[in-house]
Amino acid sequence: MKHEMIRPGEGRLTHAPADHPPVPAAKIGVLIANLGTPDGYDYWSMRRYLNEFLSDKRVIDFPSWKWQPLLQLIILTKRPFTSGANYRSIWNEEKNESPLMTITRDQTDAIRTAVQEKYGDGVEVEFCMRYGNPSTKSVLRKMVAAGCERILFFPLYPQSAGATSATACDEFFRALMKEKFQPAARTVPAYFDHPLYVDALAQSVERAYAGLDHKPDVLVASYHGMPKRYLMEGDPYHCQCQKTSRLLRERLGWEKGSIDTTFQSVFGREEWLRPYTVEHVAELAKAGKKRIAVISPAFAADCIETLEEIQGEIREAFLHAGGESFTYIPCLNDDPAHVRALMAVIEDNLAGWAP
C-alpha cells in the first residue's frame, strides 16, 4: 500500500483502509538527556543506580572479568550507604526526588514553553536520564507513539566526553534499535563555545560578585574529572573545558590568570585530569588567596557533585587550609539566560526540519 507523506502537524493518513492501525499526527521531537539520578537514597535504590552507572563501559572501561567482581562484591556492598547519605543531605523532600530531577524538569518545562511559542504544537519536548528514570528507552517509546517522526537528541553537557554525551547517544541509538518505526534522528554537538552559553555563565558570575562585599581573589572553574588516559586516547573534553574557561574570562574582560581550571570527582587509583579541585583550593588558601569563588561550567544543573561535593568536601578543604570566604556560584539551571542559550542551540539543530 502506498502511503502519502505527512509533514509535521498536518494530521493522519487520509487514504488508509478502515482496518489500518491508528497513525498519530506527525511531529518533531526534542529529547533532552541528563546524567541521571537514583529513585531514592535508600540502599537498594542507590545500589540499582550505581550498578547501572558503574557498569557502563564508557565510564569504567576496565575488562568485565576484572571490574565486575570488584564492583558487585565490594563497591556495591559499601558505597550505596555513603552515597545514600550524601543524597539524603541534598534531597528534595517535598517532591521526593533529587535536585537534578527537579531542575531538569524545570528546564524542560521552560524549553517546552519557548519551543511552543516558536514552532507551535508540531514540536514535542521531553527529557530522559541516561541512568535511572525516566529512562531513554521509555521516553523515546512515548515520543514515537505520539507521532514523532524526527527526533533531535540533546545531551545536556556543554563539553563533549565519552563518559557523558557519548554514552547518552549510545543509549539513545540502542533505544532506536527497538522501534518498528524508527524516526529520523539528529544529535546535538557540544555547545561549550556557544556565545549565549558563555554569556549566561558570565552573567551568573557578575550577579554573584555583585552580591559580595569583597571580590574573590580567584574564580575556580571546577569541571568533572576523567582519567588522564582518556585525553591521551583522543577525548576532546579537556580541551573544551580549557576553552570554556578562556572564553568566560574574555567575556568578563578579566586578565589572564584570574580563572583557574580544575577537575573534581576523582575515582580510583589512576591519574585523572589535573589539577584536582579539592587539592587546588587548599593550595590557594595556603598561598594567601583567602577569598575564592567556584563555578561549575560542565554541569547544566546542580547535582550531587555541586551541592554536596563542592559545597561540602571542597569548601571544607579550602577553609581547613586557612581560607576565609568561599562562594559557590550555582549552575545555570533554569535561569532565563540559560534557557535562551539552550533554545538557540535547539533552533540551530532543527534547521531544515522545523518551519
**CATH architecture identity of the domain at 195-329:** 3-Layer(aba) Sandwich
What percentage of residues falls in helices of 4 or more residues? 40-55%
Roughly what fraction of the amino acids lie in strands?
A: 15-25%
The gross shape turns out to be globular
Instruction: Quickly name the level 1 CATH class of the domain at 195-329.
Output: Alpha Beta
| Strand order in space, largest sheet | 2-1-3-4
Structural summary, described in words:
There is one protein chain. The protein is an alpha/beta fold and 355 residues long. Among the domains are: 41-90, no CATH class; 195-329, 3-Layer(aba) Sandwich (Rossmann fold). The protein is built from eleven helices and eight strands. The protein has a four-stranded parallel beta sheet with strand order 2-1-3-4, sandwiched between helices. Helix 6 (195-210) crosses helix 8, helix 6 (195-210) packs antiparallel against helix 11 and helix 9 packs parallel to helix 10. The radius of gyration is 22 Å and the shape is globular. The relative contact order is 0.14. The model is unreliable at 1-11 (pLDDT under 50).
